[in-house]
Amino acid sequence: MISIIDVLRRLDAGEIAADWAAGACAEAIAAREADIGAFVRTDIARATAQARAATGQPLRGMPIAVKDIIDTFDMPTEYGSPIYAGHQPRADAALVAMARRAGGVVLGKTVTTEFAYFTPGKTRNPHNLAHTPGGSSSGSAAAVAAGMAPLAFGTQTAGSVVRPASFCGVVGYKPSSKLLPVTGIKCFSWTLDTAGLFAATVADAAFATAAITGRDLRIDRATPATPSIALVRTHLWGEASDAMQRAFDVATRAAEAAGARVRELELPQSFTDAFEAQDIVQNYEANQALAFEYDNHREQLSAPLRALLEKAGHVSSDDYDSARRIARRARSAFNDMVDADVILTPSAPGIAPEGLASTGRPIFNRLWSLLGNPCINVPGLSDQAGMPLGMQIVGRFGRDRAALEAAAFLERALRASAA
Amino acid sequence: MISIIDVLRRLDAGEIAADWAAGACAEAIAAREADIGAFVRTDIARATAQARAATGQPLRGMPIAVKDIIDTFDMPTEYGSPIYAGHQPRADAALVAMARRAGGVVLGKTVTTEFAYFTPGKTRNPHNLAHTPGGSSSGSAAAVAAGMAPLAFGTQTAGSVVRPASFCGVVGYKPSSKLLPVTGIKCFSWTLDTAGLFAATVADAAFATAAITGRDLRIDRATPATPSIALVRTHLWGEASDAMQRAFDVATRAAEAAGARVRELELPQSFTDAFEAQDIVQNYEANQALAFEYDNHREQLSAPLRALLEKAGHVSSDDYDSARRIARRARSAFNDMVDADVILTPSAPGIAPEGLASTGRPIFNRLWSLLGNPCINVPGLSDQAGMPLGMQIVGRFGRDRAALEAAAFLERALRASAA
């Protein structure tokens, strides 16, 4: 994998040229893209030329892989749907415009599931081509994992950043809700849709987000602050595989060995209710957000999405309003009852499932997507076959720097325990 | 003005044909559009044909004028900016798709200020062509006022629904934040942008919103429930014209005469802080939402918008986060201290200002846009020259039915007092 911070350090030192990262991506794409299928399209020549021209900005020509649910004015954006074949947006999404303003260059558009829901694209898991990379940000996670991009953008409505990051063994960072703008990103659920990003390390993700937003997200890479950690197994612990449960114990011991205060925290029933509420909010809003596509292009929707929208049309406003109240109460309860800096919980039920028909289940992500907390997948553990098992750090809403620093702490602790 | 409910009643009674409303709009447009300039474009022939084909749905072919900041798949959408000249969106905004699903037909696109900020379009006030219709939903308010459409869509970020409704003497309804989806509406500020609508009466606005969303917003037109009303003059009372101050007293007495419990309520300093915070949230987000346009088409932005975005680039994340905290605290304080059903406050500082260079000031709207409460402009009062002076009903967040019923109560009380 290509580290953003390492590239910038070597640029500073004059060890590499401005287009080095673009060239490294091009090499990895030439070597592995035919197998992995992370991209819908790339424009390496343009990215390379733009990287040569970029100077002085924080990202200095850093190539970015952009999920094809996110508009780009100079590359078609097809939302993973034949309805939008060849669709060329007039403008960049705000996130893309901000990234270019910060010196980033668009390397290509990555495979998304259909409208960032569940129907998968062509992408395979770089760790084992017979397994899914996860979704819906399939191509973005796989591209970073395979060294084809140092930075990739994705979105999460249920579990579409943290889950594929877990399956592909990369850092996936879903910031606090609306920290990154979703303007110009095809909407599935306006309450839940959250832009996020993938990178090789936690420090890379923090640096890139700071560069794009101007926020202070600096974390101490060498000696991150020691966090207090609440272990949250959730009511779905029984759904976690044996390998994931063992990995969770390994991560817990590694954090303790590195000095973290760790204790168990059992969430009350109101959080189980909130888990269920995520689905209601998502479906009610999807029925409205995709009303045009359903009414005008139904035959071009996948059968599962069509079925979802049919079902979603029957969610009542009362049920929706009730689900939003449950969410508000759970956000408040989180602040009242979580006295640790962050939560540690699995990123996914286990390794990436075999086969490409399903992108896996977001059951360990839905709750946090509804609550809007920052979530970071920390890679570093794997099963006996080498398939990644991600650990999820969940921070307090709006305290993204602290969440990232805790994730960096865990990342370092896992490396130390593996050594 | 054309009343939606009257048209539907007459359709039910077999008194008029399915395309009657489209025909009435066409007549008014032929008579007055050359002077008023409410529309960017219309397609009366198509609307008429669609109205003839529409049967059985709640809106049964009702013509809708759509602000040109809202995407339509079959009509260009130019956002009031030369940057988007001729721009044809691929899809309808969610609100438009839902309105068509409910049987509405798109009559045309109405004039918006540039990106729904302040730089005005061509529209004139139907009550006096030498005066502004207000903005940013200039054409939508004017179209309904001039009988050129029974229903029009607009958006409000600071005061862009309630203010032009006040200036043009129509009902303007800004629902609770996100009650109507903003997906497919050009974003200025994702926290603040709110879709709303214009109609002849409060009952028409309530009926149309219920038809589009499926929400229960039925109000008793004949005998609306008697509300308790808090009179909120705000810290900007001194900015209200003498005529507006007198109209406010007339409205207060009319409500009391009709049986409402009315008392004064002075909002504490925290609401003044929230008023200021609206500007910070709006500008910080506009800088990101319009990053593409600023970076790529700066020379095609108006000087005031360019200046705003230049200034907005210097709003820090800390200031923005602080403004959002102020907003959250004010929302909570509203619930704690307002024990009336609704607030009554002016819709605008006075009548529509003379001239077309400015669309007037949203100073009586900013606070409620930030808090997200439902707001309804109730027409019925005017100055000695007959220029409208609107009264604003502000309801509790999420209690839109109660807010609409209180607005209907005031509407009726004003009619009774004028009789």
Task: Describe this protein's structure.
The structure is a homodimer of 419-residue chains. Chain A has a domain at 4-213: Amidase signature (AS) enzymes, CATH 3.90.1300. In chain A, strands 1-3-2-4-6-5-10-11-9-7-8 form an 11-stranded mixed sheet, sandwiched between helices. Chain A is built from 14 helices and 11 strands. Chain A is globular, with a radius of gyration of 20 Å. With 419 residues, chain A is an alpha/beta fold. In chain A, α8 crosses α14 (400-418). The longest helix of chain A is centred in the middle third of the chain and has 21 residues, at 269-289. Chain A starts with a helix and ends with a helix. The mean pLDDT of chain A is 97. The interface between A and B is large, with 36 and 36 residues.
This entry's quaternary arrangement is homodimer
Distance between the termini of chain A: 19 Å
If helices are DSSP runs of H or I spanning 4 or more residues, what is the number of helices of chain A?
14
Q: What is the number of E strands of chain A?
A: 11
Low-confidence stretches of chain A: none
In CATH's first tier, which class of the domain at 4-213 in chain A applies?
Alpha Beta
Radius of gyration of chain A: 20 Å
N-to-C SSE string of chain A, H for helix and E for strand:
HHEHEHEHEHEEHEHEHHHHEHEEH
Shape of chain A: globular
Main interface by residue count: A-B, 36 and 36 residues
Strand content of chain A: 5-15%
Averaged pLDDT of chain A, please? 97
CATH architecture of the domain at 4-213 in chain A: Alpha-Beta Complex
Strand order of the largest sheet of chain A: 1-3-2-4-6-5-10-11-9-7-8
- How much helicity do the residues of chain A have? 40-55%
Main pleated sheet of chain A: 11 strands, mixed
CATH topology of the domain at 4-213 in chain A: Amidase signature (AS) enzymes
